[in-house]
């Protein structure tokens, strides 16, 4: 941005210098209308020169952006083709001015170092900023299992909410490893039985533990 302003200033100064000389010469000849025309022409030349500079700078910026995108694509391709990284979690690639930033997760330190080495070998890469997090497989599996249980719980609650004769607001649902536990208080045994039936018919449920208390 500073370079652009500097270039614009140089063009303006040069053009104004020309304008001053032309105006002085014409003033001596007492040709007022020609002075006005000369000023307008000089102004137009300044505008055209500035536009050319802006266009050139835009082309440079666009070329730099295309280069960064191209490098990022090459790095992603190289990572996908590496056998040791095919089960390497989730790796994101960002590139700016030849500097590649790796983010996301891998299963171990070896994969993190491998990803960094693969990226560094790609043509056009100047350096690699490794921000990958190591998440062990059992941790990843635990997260996945927790997500599945949460989904099942949401499904059971939604079905209870839309089932007539079941006081869904009085029933608590907890899911662990696909096993749904129902707790709370209901007015009669029929409501407890209906809640259990709804839970058993929900996709993903392996077993239902009915701990609902019947008031009457």
Order of helices and strands: HHEEHEHEEHE
Question: What is the topology, as strand order, of the major beta sheet?
Answer: 1-2-3
Structural class: alpha/beta
Whole-number count of domains: 3
Task: Assign the CATH class of the largest domain.
Answer: Alpha Beta
Uncertain spans:
10-31, 60-66
CATH structural fold name of the largest domain = Histidine-containing Protein, Chain: A
Task: State the total count of DSSP E strands.
Answer: 6
How far apart lie the N and C ends?
79 Å
Mean pLDDT, all residues? 75
In one word, what is the shape?
elongated
Note the beta-strand portion. Answer: 15-25%
Tally of DSSP helical segments: 5
Largest sheet data: 3 strands, mixed
Instruction: Report the CATH architecture of the largest domain.
Output: 2-Layer Sandwich
Walk me through what this model shows.
The protein has helices spanning 2-28, 32-81, 109-120, 137-161, 189-200; strands spanning 90-96, 99-106, 127-134, 171-176, 179-186, 207-214. With 216 residues, the chain is α/β, with parallel strands linked by helices. The chain has a 3-stranded mixed beta sheet with strand order 1-2-3. The longest helix is centred in the N-terminal third of the chain and has 50 residues, at 32-81. Residues 10-31 and 60-66 have low confidence and may be disordered.
């Amino acid at each position: 941005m500073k370079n652009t302003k500097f270039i614009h200033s140089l063009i303006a100064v040069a053009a104004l210098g020309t304008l001053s000389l032309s105006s002085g010469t014409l003033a001596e000849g007492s040709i007022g209308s020609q002075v006005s025309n000369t000023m307008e022409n000089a102004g137009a030349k300044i505008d055209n020169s500035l536009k050319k500079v802006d266009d050139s700078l835009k082309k440079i910026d666009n070329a730099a952006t295309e280069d960064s995108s191209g490098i990022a694509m090459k790095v992603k391709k190289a990572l996908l083709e590496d056998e040791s990284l095919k089960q390497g979690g989730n790796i994101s690639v960002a590139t700016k001015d030849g500097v590649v930033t790796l983010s996301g997760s891998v299963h171990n330190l070896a994969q993190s170092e491998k990803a960094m080495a693969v990226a560094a070998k790609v043509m056009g890469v100047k350096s690699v900023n490794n921000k990958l997090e190591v998440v062990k497989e059992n941790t990843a599996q635990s997260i996945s299992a927790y997500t599945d249980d949460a989904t099942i719980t949401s499904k059971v609650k939604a079905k209870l909410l839309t089932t007539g004769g079941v006081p869904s607001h009085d029933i608590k649902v907890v899911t662990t490893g696909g096993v749904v536990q129902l707790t709370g208080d209901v007015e009669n045994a029929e409501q407890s039985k209906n809640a259990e039936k709804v839970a058993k018919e929900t996709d993903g449920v392996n077993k239902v533990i009915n701990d609902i208390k019947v008031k009457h």
